[in-house]
Each structure stands twice: as structure tokens, then as C-alpha cells.
Sequence to fold (467 residues):
Amino acid sequence: MELPRVLVIDDEKAVLNFLYVLLTQSEKYDPDILNDSTGAYEMLTGGGYDLLLLDMDMPRVTGLDILKFIREKEIDIETIVLTGVDDVELAVNAMKLGAYDYLRKPVDNDLLLLNMDRAMERKNMRKEIVRLKQEGGWESLTHKTVFQEIVTRNSKMLRIFHLIEKIAPTDTSVLIWGESGTGKELIARAIHRISHRSDKPFVAVNAGVFARELFASEFFGHTRGAFSGADSDKKGFLEESHGGTLFMDEIGELPIDIQVKLLRVLQDGKFFRVGSTREREADVRIIAATNKNLQEEIEKGAFRTDLFYRLNVNSITLPPLRERQDDISLLTKYFIDFYNKKHNKNIKGISPTVGEILESYHYPGNIRELKNIIESAVLVENHDKLTLHSLPQYFLEQTENADSGEDESASIDEGLSLEEVEKLYIKKILQKTGGNRTQTAKILKISRVTLISKLKKYGLSDIQLSD
Fold:
């Protein structure tokens, strides 16, 4: 098997020699060394390296210069920064430029090798996500980089991306439908990035979080003295997004009087600040989103018909996660990678049981809920795979197989101890028998006395039981 290629750049030959020997003896990496950082650009461009160990304090071409080059040229390499200087600001700048980690010299050998392993895990996971995306038909998209933040290989989502590529270059309004947590703002940002307004502001607003009396001031701005506390002029969302895109989430929550004013903006491109008689121009594209059925809101008199048709020039409906079954494993890998980095963990995957549960869940909170589930599990997991016991309790309670883990014919979760497996199995049989201890003992092929003892041992005596 071909070993991952590592480039070590340092102006100290002693450090280079030491690291070369260390990596060679580890038998896990194929290292090259570079003493003169001025040759870094050429080696990085054509070398095909997987990892970079980079000194920061070098003459002529510094570590930051090299990190900027890597970002500018979009070179697919993981970087671990090595430095003899204890400089927090330098570390922060290096991480902002994409460095995986920051280690101070003299470097602990085991820590360095561990960080290199984790960096390679991240790189391999990223490759896998790219591969899965490509298999899902991404190649036919014109603006692939615009959609990189949206992790999917689902055919419905890919059709939406193709629709976005058609409508984004126009200035028409867009209405995005979808349940909470389906990624409506990501879609709005993609539209903005493809549009001719991409170099102008993108302003995202949740229309449902503002009190009615404050929304007009926040949306249209106000003049000094317009009301108590208005000590100075203030731009509203419309002016902040001038020339660009204003994304209004939860548009169905807008009060009727504000709907009237928004309609005028869409019709005439004009508005007034609160407390002002001066008419202002609104050069802005409106993208609205809702998780409500606006046609039902219209019937109830809570939403204006004319505003609905002004917003709904182009319509996009995002599928819930339960209709994107093929994306659950892909999103899980993506979030594990993300939270490994954020929380300095090294989770390499999920156990078979966790995979089955994640695939079968209905996700009322959609992608946002899956994201939270994975973060919670990554934080508490002590193994190298997410196991049943790392999943949030509420999630387990709402999942069909939560208490038992798997069917009797399925493999046991690798992360559970023998006692934990026994407890889960006893609980499962109790549920099947409706809490009948006699039937449970018979199925388990143990005496009733032994069963009662085990119920006490595992804290299962509070389950509703019968004889």
C-alpha cells in the first residue's frame, strides 16, 4: 500500500533530519524534506503531497506566505504548523488560513504522529465525500464550488441545484419552501453567489424573531428622534443589503402592516425610514423562505395574496431529510469530520447499530437535528467509533430500536460491554412480553429468581412488570 506523502519545510537542518528519521521509522509516512523555503511553491504545486509539516519563522518565504499560497491555489493538503515561538496570534492566523493544528517545538513525537493521523483521517474523509458527490451527478453542474457547503448526493437536491443555476442570474424574487432545518439559508446564499450581485452584501434576517413594534425600524431603518431611544439615524436591513440580496426567513411571521410596506418595496423599489418623509431607493433582490403553508395563511387572512405572488416568482421546495435517505451517511461523515476538528477528537466512524438507527430515524428537525446529534455524540464518545451510548437520550427514546440497539439477528454494537449488552437484551425481551417476568425468564432461559436479581442489578425494576 502506498504511504501518505509528507513534505517537511524548516530552515533548521537538525530539525529536518530528526523529523525525516522519525517519520521513516514510523513506517506510516513517506517523507521529503526542504531546507530552503523559496522552493516550497514549486514542490507543493507538483509534488502530490498529503501532509505538510511547516515551520513558521523562516527567512524570505515564511510559513504564513506558504499557507496563503496553499489557499490561493486550492492545494489539497493538510498542514501542521511547527514553531519555536509561543505566539497565540500567529497560531490563530495559521488556523484561519487552513492549518490543521499548531505545535510548539520541541515537538512531542507521539503527539505529532497522533495529529498527523488525525489530519489524514480528515483528508481521507474529505476525499470520500467528494467521491460520493461525484457519483451522485455533480459533474453536470456549472457552479460546483458554489454548492460545496451543501452536502448531498440526492437526486432531488441536484435537480434543485440545476434550477438555481437557471434562476440565480436574474433579479426576480425567490420563495424557498421547506421545513425547519432543511438548509434554506444555504440555498439562498448559493443563489446570491451565482447572481450578478455576488460582490455586494448578503443580509440574512429571521422575520419571526422581532417584536412587531421593532420590525419596521429594523427593516426600513429610522431617523433620529423617530421614537423614544432613537438617538441617531440607523440603516435598516434594506439599506444594509443595498445592491445585494436580502434573505428573509420565516416570511410567514410578518405582521400584515409590514407586509403592505414590503409589497411596495417589491412593486416600486421605494421605502421610507421610520420617522422620515424622504423616499429612498431599494436596489435589492428579495429571497424569502417559509416553513408554513402560505396558501393556508392566505385563507386565514394572515398573509396577503398580492405579496405571495410577488415573492413566489420563482419557487424552490426543499425536501426534508427523511426524503433524503441517501444523504444521511454522507452528512454523518461530514459532521464527524467537522466536530473532530472543532473538539479535538478522533472519531473514525460509527458502529453498525448507530448506522441503522441514524438511517431509520424520521428527523423532525432535519439536517440541523442530525448535526446536533452528531456533535453531542462526538463530545461524549470515548471510542474511535460512535456507539449506541454516545447518542442523545431523547434521540434513543424516539427511535424504534433505541433500547435494544439491534434485532437479535444483527451484530452487537462493538462499543458495548458484556453487561451493557445483557441489560439491553433483557430490557428488549421485557418490552416484547409487556413486562411479564415469567415469560421473560422463559425466553431468556433463566430462573425467575435470577431475572429479578438482574433487574435490580441493572436498575430495571421500575419498568412496569407483571407476573
